[in-house]
Amino acid sequence: MPEPGAPNTHNGYLEARLSEGSSFPIALLHTGILQLCTISIISQVSKSGNPQCNSVPYRTVREVTMQFGCCTTIDQAEAVSAAGFDYLEAGVTSLIPDQDDAAFSPILAQYKVSPVPVQAFNLFLPGDLKVVGTEVDIDRAKIYIGRAVERIKRIGARTAVIGSGGSRRVPDGFPRDEATDQIIQFLGLVADEADNSGVTIAIEPLNKKESNIINSVSEAAFFAREVNRPSMRVLADFYHMDEDDEPLETLIDNKDWLAHIHVADSARGAPGSGQYPYTRFIELLRQAGYDGMISIECRWADFKSEAGPSVAFLRRAFAS
Fold first, then answer.
1. Residue-range definition of the domain harbouring residue 40
2. What CATH number is attached to the domain comprising 288?
3. C or N: which end of the chain has fewer Cβ atoms within 10 Å?
4. What are the strands, taking DSSP E only, across the chain?
């Protein structure tokens, strides 16, 4: 028996718990379109057992196909599942790509019994694996990338985020054009492994306090275009965009490159707890045609009390 108000599907309808004499919106699911009707429950239902809609549809919205996930560690999988998330986004570094398969085996076993699907990864690189500057180790990078992508695929995830601000930081005095070339070379190595793996790579822009290169969605799209490989795409992070006052309209400008979304709220709090302009953000994502995964990456004050309401907030916001 679902909790009061929890949706469930039956006979093509998205039903809500009904109480006699109540009047509220209910969503009717037909051929990929949600038609919202206001219904009044008096004391009867149709012979089929489905509630009658006594007014004409007043609004049509698109079916919500995106999934909502949580960025955290695999040991939090039970809590993520209990909070109602669709998936978990973990860290690539937890897959220890610097170590062999024997060391990875017990880690894989833990991922395989997760009660919630692990569909995405972030934290692609450890801070000491540099991709820019004089300390770049191409041989180590190739081994690391190969193991990382292979392990991501074995777990069943379909997206890997490359942020790793410490690894891509341009050292003081290092030529900017050379740094750009090094990042393109690194991303090409990643694409060599990812293109035939089914794993999409999402380049993550970070705000200027966390990285001194790739600070906007447009800049990330520039790198994706330069690499020009099927697996190479871009992430938009609501928090990083807000920190640097990046216009939300960039979501439209770079719509063909968007592959993943991270969200938070004011002071990087849980979604729904602050003043971020979610209505506008969602409107522009819709205009961009984005219907993929959306992961919460925030600072939880108290996960147990905040997580459920936050994912519920996102579901309502994207359904309205």
1. 8-62
2. 3.20.20.150
3. N
4. 8-10, 13-15, 23-30, 33-40, 59-62, 68-71, 87-91, 118-122, 159-162, 200-203, 232-237, 258-263, 294-296
